[in-house]
Amino acid sequence: MRHVWERSLHIAGHAATLAVRPDAIVVYERHTRLVCLDPRDGSVRWDVPTERWPREIVLAGDRLLVGGSHLHCLDLATGAVTWCAPMRSWSAHAVVCGSLVLFGGWRGYTPVGAVDLETGTVVWRAPARTATVLPVAWGDLALSGYDDRAWLLDPRDGTEAHAWRLPEPLYRADLAEVFRVVDADRCLARTESRRVVELRLSTPEVSGVDHPFDWPRVLPFLVAQPFGHLISAKGPVWTGERRIYAIHDLGGGRVLMVTKGALRVVAIDG
């Protein structure tokens, strides 16, 4: 394992909110700042003020969505705010579905709705509150779910297009990934007992997945706590860290780790 770069967050690692893809890392740090980093060397592209404790940071093409008491849309290249849509308190969730952004439903505190990604205009908002785990875009629709039910919404107006009854309640943790789309017809879902089930658009039946680690595109490294190992196909790799809160695959054998108080990128040899 080879050290590439490291950056202090000035907050606890478990409190860091970030969005990661191979060409950009955006992280909430120092309690009041939003910072865009170059994944190659950790250099700062921009550093802008933000409200405290944003609930999500979402990369959407050349835009960045930051959720809180307002949903902000930033230019990913500069960090400049392009629009701001007021949200009800505790809205959370920001899921891009084509030209729309679905929001709301976190813990059932607020109604689900959608805003236009280009302008921030609220397109619709449901009349009643609805609880959902973190939704995911599935083609032109949005998959939501709660307890033992999952359903597809049309993000243009909120109408329900398809639904499934699950053998047990969905896994529930704040803003955690519960659904993962496999292809145009299939999506996997995690349940409260950590089982994985498969949903298909072609049938209302739900089937179990025999090997949960078949979860598609699982990161090639699993965290073994509290020992500070990254477990790869070649075996454990010692990182020297006592606590790793999250890992992100940057490609090319590089891994971003969120540690106790820092971001750290390492290269895994072989």
List the helices and strands and how they pair.
Layout: E1 2-8, E2 18-21, E3 24-29, E4 33-37, E5 44-49, E6 56-60, E7 63-67, E8 70-75, E9 81-86, E10 94-97, E11 100-103, E12 113-116, E13 122-125, E14 136-138, E15 141-146, E16 149-153, E17 160-165, E18 179-181, E19 186-190, E20 196-200, E21 203-208, E22 222-224, E23 229-232, E24 235-238, E25 244-251, E26 254-259, E27 262-267
Antiparallel strand pairs: 1-27, 2-3, 3-4, 4-5, 6-7, 7-8, 8-9, 10-11, 11-12, 12-13, 14-15, 15-16, 16-17, 18-19, 19-20, 20-21, 22-23, 23-24, 25-26, 26-27
Q: Helix segment count?
A: 0
**Which of globular, elongated, flat, extended, rod-shaped describes the shape?**
globular
Number of domains: 1
Find the count of extended strands (DSSP E, 2+ residues): 27
Q: Which quaternary structure do these chains form?
A: single chain
- Can you give the mean pLDDT? 86
Helix-strand makeup class: mainly beta
Q: Mind telling me the CATH superfamily name?
A: YVTN repeat-like/Quinoprotein amine dehydrogenase
Protein name: Pyrrolo-quinoline quinone repeat domain-containing protein
Organism: Herbidospora galbida
InterPro entries: PQQ_rpt_dom, Quinoprotein_ADH-like_sf, WD40/YVTN_repeat-like_dom_sf
Domain Pyrrolo-quinoline quinone repeat: 69-203
